[in-house]
Every structure is written in C-alpha cells, then in structure tokens.
Design brief:
By secondary structure, the protein is mainly α. Helices cover 77% and strands 0% of the residues. The two termini are 23 Å apart. The N terminus and C terminus are likely disordered.
C-alpha cells in the first residue's frame, strides 16, 4: 500500500479508503462472504481478543503448580510469563500491517489456528524449557490475530455500530483480565483428570477450533487494495525498542537487576528515537512506514495514547498486586482469590454495556466520570484493607472492587473507540497495532514498576497491606489524571446527538 504524506484525516480520502477496505477486490471475488461486520461476526472476532488476554493473566495462578510438576527454576517461571508478553507486544504492529496488506480475515484465521496449535503444545509440554518455547510461539500467534480485530471493526462498521463494537472490544479485554484469574483458579483447583495446570492451555483448543469454523463463515474479508511492502528497518528498530524495554522490566527483578538489564533500559529510549526518525524519513520519501508518523496528526490517537499508557499500566499493576495481597497476605487459595474479583467483573460488564448510550449523550465526559469513579473505588478499597488488616474477610473487599470496576469499565470500553475514531480505514491495522502495543507494553510496565514497589515494601518489613495501600494511592492519582485528561479528547464539547457521531465516524477532524 502506498500512502503519501498528506493529511490522513481528509474526509474524501477516508471515504474512498473505507469503501476500498470493505468492498475491495477480495470481497467481489468472494461474493458469499459478508461485507460488513454482523453481530455474529463481532462475537467470533472478539474470541480472538478474549483468548490471548485470558492467557496473559491465567498462567499467574498456575505458576506454583507448574513449578512442582516441571521443577522449573525461578528465571524459567518468569519466562513462562514474560516470554509470552514480550513476543506478543513485539509483533503487534507488524501483525496489524500484514493484515492491511494480505487481508485481515486471512491473517486472523492464520493467527487463531497457530494459537490453537501452540496452546496444545503448551498443554502437553514435557519440560519447562519446552513450555517457555511454546509460550513464545503462543505470543507470536496472538500478535498475528489480535490486531485484525480492531482493524476489521474499523473497516467493516460505521456510525453507531462501530461505537458499539469498539465498546464491546474494550469490555472483552477488561473482562478477560479478570476471567483469566478466575478461570485459572477454577481449572487448577479442579485438577481435571489429574492434569494439574495443563487444562489452562488445553481449554483453548476446542474454543479455537470452533472459532476457526465460525470465522470462515461470519467474518468479512477486508484489506487495502494495494498491498504494501514490509518496512524491514522499521520493523527491526521497533522490535529492538520493545525488547530493550520489556526484557529488563519483566526479568530484571527476579535476576537482581544485573548490569545488562540497566544497559537495555538506557538504550531503549535511544532506539525509540532512531525508530521515530527513520519512520518520518520513510514517509516523507513516499515509502510505507511500519507506523506512519502521520497517525499522530490525529488528536484522537495522540491524546488517547497519552491516557492509555498510564491507565493500562495501573490496571496491570492492580491485577498483579491484588493477587499477591489475597494469596500471600490473606493466604487465600487461587480459586478464592479469583472469585473475589467477581464484583469487579460484574460492574465492569454493566458499565461496558452502557457506554454506547452514554457516549451518545455525554461524549468523552464518560471517561472523566469513569476516572473519578475508579479513584473513589480504589480509595474505598485502600481504607478497607488498612482498617481491616490482617483479619480481613475477602468479601469485605467487594464494595471497593465493585466501584473501581464500574469506573474502569467506563474508561476502558470507550477508550479504544476514541483513540481510533479519526484513523482512516486504510491504516486501521497500523493504528490498532500501535494501540494494542501500547496496551501490552503498559501492562508490563505497570507490573514492573508498581508491582516491584509493592514487592519491595512487602519485603522490607513495611507489610503487604501497607505496600498495597501505597500502590493504590499512586493509582488513585493516575485515575485522576485520566479523568482530567479526558477534557482534551474528541467529543468533549458536543451536543447530545453529535457526540456519538464525532466519536464513531473515522476521518472526522
């Protein structure tokens, strides 16, 4: 695909690109395939978000069982988690760009098939080393599949249908984080057929097979008409940047922060600058960069990513610290810890299902309200832990979790739609790849920073409860920043009926 360095938000260009993406040559060649995303098609592609996100979190509760079964060292156990996360984040943008070129449906099917096979390999892993390799391969397959979901929504929906679909996407990602810990606790505790931890991966196999069959029937085939060459240097520079950031952040604490991890963290911003400069030169020269810098011309992308980074960092850190608080501090089982998150899951779902109507009436003010509610819920949770420790029934955490979940649902679900609201369909894959890379990197960043702070405070005699309260205080500040930052997003100053149109129609500037 050739993309000249013009204003990508020009309405006429967007309309042409949207028609090309939805009704391009592949759609004419396959007249039996749907050209727009139906409700059934949306449900199918959201499975492509649910499975990878669940697998991002589900393994945490199974690590002790994996350790006992496979006799894994601590660094290997860390790699079971970080290998998946790093490979996933590393290739997301490339996966989005490949989908733009060769067809999003095709790459979605390839990614889901690979995810199913690699899940089977993980579930049958005879050694810890084999499991690590399987997890890396699983992360690669997820990176091929997930960007196609957002890109397909962008290319095959319009107006209110797009707003609703993007809200469902955000809801699915958030619920998957909670369900991952709940499902992991259930499967490990059930010890199905004495398989121990293995069902947490094997459960993906039948779901993936059914998803493949349904995706072939219900998912529309969208692509840009002119395939673009792969930006090799840009891909390498972005990959090195992500590796230099995520490898030390995910492995540094368990290894005691050796010199090479510090060196990588110093090099990471230099690589990021080199990547940005190369991409700008490539776009000015008329080539197709991996991440077109002109994406950041759009206010929705630029300001939305600025809010997405701290929000997802705080979300990832919260899930990590909660699991340790309940399992290590209150000595609860993985099942009990997972079930304790049900109040958050319920309110998150309710908020997510209502965001389409709320956006139509209040615009981006919904995110500001969500940030405030999240802060209030975290304050309630912190006070509950501080006053009730150490004799604290997990049920008493429910009010704070419920309010925080309500706020998170009001932020996360519409955030994806707002970030992508001005991105043309022709570069939807690149835009969704940037957004999902930001999300995954932020999750790892939150665990590495706030999670490490929590562990440090818990280990030096301060106590688990005090460490948790300190981390919650930081997250309250982040939630307030998100609420304040929502004022700069598209759709803040709109009338009731104009809000949904401005947030939903791509290409509006």
């Amino acid at each position: 695909m050739y993309m000249p360095s013009t204003n990508l938000s020009e309405p006429a260009l967007t309309q042409v690109n949207l028609r090309s993406a939805v009704n391009g040559p592949s759609s004419h060649a396959r007249g039996h395939e749907p050209r727009t995303l139906t409700g059934a098609g949306l449900a199918v592609i959201l499975v492509g978000v649910l499975l990878p996100m669940i697998d991002f979190f589900i393994v945490n509760v199974a690590l002790p069982t994996i350790d006992r079964d496979l006799h894994a060292s601590q660094p290997l156990l860390e790699l079971v988690v970080s290998g998946y996360a790093t490979a996933y984040a590393l290739l997301l943008v490339l996966g989005g760009r490949l989908g733009d070129s060769i067809g999003r449906k095709r790459l979605f099917l390839i990614g889901m098939a690979a995810f199913t096979v690699t899940s089977l390999a993980c579930g049958l892993a005879p050694t810890a080393d084999f499991l690590v390799v399987g997890r890396v391969a699983q992360g690669v397959s997820a990176a091929l599949m997930v960007p196609q979901v957002l890109a397909t929504i962008q290319a095959a929906t319009t107006g209110e249908r797009r707003t609703t679909a993007l809200g469902r996407y955000g809801a699915t990602g958030g619920l998957a984080a909670v369900l991952g810990q709940v499902l992991g606790g259930v499967l490990v505790s059930a010890n199905i057929d004495n398989l121990g931890w293995r069902p947490i991966f094997l459960v993906n196999v039948p779901i993936g097979l059914v998803g493949l069959v349904l995706a072939r029937r219900y998912v529309p085939d969208t692509r840009h008409g002119a395939p673009a060459p792969i930006d090799g240097p840009g891909t390498v520079l972005l990959g090195l940047t992500v590796l230099a950031l995520l490898v030390p952040l995910t492995e540094g604490r368990s290894l005691g922060w050796p010199a090479w991890t510090i060196a990588l963290l110093v090099i990471a911003p230099l690589l990021a600058v080199a990547f940005g400069r190369y991409e700008m030169r490539a776009e000015r020269a008329g080539r197709t960069p991996l991440v077109p810098p002109s994406l950041l011309v759009h206010r929705s992308m630029r300001r939305g990513l600025f809010l997405a980074l701290p929000f997802f960092a705080g979300f990832g850190a919260f899930m990590f610290c909660y699991a340790l608080l309940v399992q290590e501090g209150l000595h609860a089982s993985p099942l009990t810890a997972g079930l304790g998150l049900v109040p958050m899951a319920v309110t998150f779902l309710l908020a997510s299902l209502s965001t389409s109507r709320l956006l139509a009436r209040f615009g981006a003010k919904v995110l500001a309200a969500g940030g405030i509610l999240q802060a209030v819920g975290l304050v309630i949770l912190g006070v509950t832990v501080y006053l009730g420790w150490p004799h604290l029934p997990i049920a008493e955490l429910a009010p704070g979790l419920a309010v925080a979940g309500l706020g998170q649902g009001l932020v996360m679900s519409p955030l994806f739609g707002i970030v992508l609201s001005e991105v043309p369909a022709a570069v939807a894959g690149a835009g969704s790849g940037v957004l999902t890379t930001t999300q995954q990197t932020a999750l790892a960043l939150g665990v590495a920073t706030l999670g490490s702070l929590f562990l440090a405070l818990s280990a030096d005699g301060t106590g688990v409860s005090t460490g948790f309260v300190v981390v919650l205080a930081i997250q309250v500040a982040v939630a307030i920043v998100v609420a304040a930052g929502a004022r700069g997003l598209p759709g803040w100053r709109t009338r009731v009926n104009a809000a949904s149109r401005e947030l939903a129609v791509a290409g509006h500037s």
